Amino acid sequence: MSPEDLSIVSMVRSAGPMVQFVIYLLLGFSIATWTIILMKYFYVRRAFKESAQFVEYFWKTRDFSNAFARAKDLKNSPVARIFRNAYIELRKLNRPGAQEQDDTDFTANVESIRRILGRSRNMESVRMIQMVPFLATTGNIAPFIGLFGTVWGIMNAFRSIAIQAGSTSLGTVAPGVSEALVATAAGLAVAIPAVMAFNYFTQKIRIIESEMESFSSDFMSIVENEARRQQSRES
């Protein structure tokens, strides 16, 4: 057996149809996994950067209209998007003639803003988590797909021994064993980066969700304080 016959490409080409199917299936999972990893990496990095910029600007200006203008420029920031939604709702509630401002109206206004913030956070969480579960699925099933290819390759090795009247020479069993090893390696090569990426993105998304929760709480405190001050002036 020449060294060329021992290369990965040669072993895949010489493998049986079932093992080839397993390897190409794992290749498809690998391509999808790395596509998602690259997409989510740049998405999460932009979300982190722009959210930090928006929060810093918001507390520096402390003016809702200026912050709204800045939020429109930071299109990749989840925090900026939930603020935009809340600010739009706040302007609707505070437009001239929208409501007679009594105690019930102020309470309703605050609860309306709170609902908008909660709904926006949920939407942003769904947006961030999209495609990430596929990484967990790949990490869980890829080793088993590779194991299936491994078992099939071992079966081929034993079949070769039976066909050649019990010969156990290296040349007899090597093709089936090589198929098995390639399938095992392919399954692990797909699963390991998928699991690592899933854990990484899950951690980063949790941090952004915590930032959204913190900002929402602070924003609601500002809205409630302003509502109380306005109510005091009008009473």
SS class: mainly alpha
Number of domains: 1
Portion in helices: over 70%
Number of strands: 0
The biggest sheet amounts to:
none
Total helix count?
7
**Topology order in helix (H) and strand (E) letters:** HHHHHHH
What Rg, in angstroms, do the CA atoms define? Answer: 29 Å
Mean pLDDT figure: 83
The residue ranges in which pLDDT falls below 50 over 5 or more consecutive positions are none
First-residue to last-residue Cα separation:
95 Å
**Coarse shape:** rod-shaped
What is the beta-strand fraction? under 5%
Topology readout:
Blueprint (H helix, E strand, L loop, with lengths): L7 H7 L2 H45 L2 H10 L4 H17 L8 H27 L2 H32 L6 H65 L1
Key traits:
235 residues, mainly alpha
Description:
The protein contains seven helices and no strands. It is mainly alpha-helical. It has one domain (3-234). The termini are far apart. The chain is rod-shaped and about 100 Å long. The protein has helices spanning 8-14, 17-61, 64-73, 78-94, 103-129, 132-163, 170-234.
Give a concise summary.
The protein has helices at residues 8-14, 17-61, 64-73, 78-94, 103-129, 132-163, 170-234.
